[in-house]
Amino acid sequence: MHPTETQMLREIREIPVVTERQVRDGGRIYLEEARRLKREAPRFLVSCARGSSDHAVTFFKYLVETRIGIPVASVGPSVASIYRAKLDFRDGVLITVSQSGGSPDLVRLQERASEGGARTIAVLNVTDSPVGRAAGAVLPMLAGPEKAVAATKSFVASLVALLSVAAYWSEDHALIDALASLPDNLAKALDCDWSAAAFPVTAAHSLYTIARGHGLGIAGEAALKLKETCRLHAESYSAAEVLHGPIALARDRFVAIVFSNGDDTEGSISDTVRRLAAAGARVFVAGRPIAGAHALPVVTTPHVLLQPICHVASFYRFAEALSISLGENPDAPILLKKVTETT
Fold first, then answer.
1. Of 14, 109, 118, 294, which sees the most CB atoms within 10 A?
2. DSSP 8-state code for residue 263
3. 121 beta partners
4. CATH classification of the domain holding 102
C-alpha cells in the first residue's frame, strides 16, 4: 500500500474482493429472498433510499420492471417523516437500500410501509442499524467497513446484491452463471484509463452524465461523485430526457460523459451522442464507439447487465484521480460526512 494513497482509492481497489465475497458468501441469502419474492408475487415494489443508494435502486427498478414485469416506484421519505402520511402498501414490498442504515427518515418510511401492509427488505452494509433492526428481511452488502465519505465499494456491493436477487427471481441462468466472472471483470475495469477526459471535464466546469435504462443509475452516481469529490457541477439525464430542453446548454467546451450498455437503448444513446456532438459538446462514451465521440476504454462482460457495474468501477478510478489533480480531498469532502442523517 502506498503511504499517500487515499482511503477512497484503497476502497475502490477492494471492489473485486468484495464482489467475490458476495458471490461466495451472499448467494444463498440473495437466492432465498428471490424465492420468497417469487412465492409472494407482490403487485409492486417501492424503494426507500437517498444519495448513492437511490442510484442503486434506479438500477434495480429497471431490472425488476424489464425482467419481472412489476412496477417499482420511489416514495420520498419525507412523506412519512415530515408529512406523517399514511400509505396503503397492501400487496407491496418496500426495499430500503443504505450503507449505514442510520438515517431517521429512512427508518420512518420503513415503519410507515410496514404499518400500511408491506413486507420490508433492507439492503445494508451495516446490518446492525436502525433500518436493519426494524426490517422484515436484511440482505447484507458484505462490503466491510467503509471509511471514505464518498461511497464506492458499498455502492457496487448494493448493485451486486440487487442484481443477484433479480437474477434468481427471474431465473435467468445465463446471468446467474455470469455473476461468477464479475470479480475478474471488475479487476480489469479498475485498470481502464479514462484520463483522456480529465482536462476537458476540468475545463468545462459543468457537464452532463448520460445513460438510459439499466445505466441510468450509474449516470446519477457519476454526477454525484463529481460533485462530492471534485466539486464540479454535473447533472445526470437519460439519453431521452436530455433532448427535452437540457441539450440547449451543449455548446463549445461543454462536456458529456455517456454510459452505453450495448443493449436495446443503444440506438437512442447513439442518436443523442450525435446530436450533442453536432451542437458543439465534447462527448466521451463508455461503451461501443459512436461517431463524434471519444471512446473511453471499457471491459467487455459475458452478460450485458454486468456492464453498468464495470462502468462505475472504471469511473471511480477516474473520479478519484481527478479529485487529487484538482487539489481536493476525496476522503473528506467539504460540508459532508460519512453518515448523513436527515429527518
1. 109
2. S
3. 95, 137
4. 3.40.50.10490
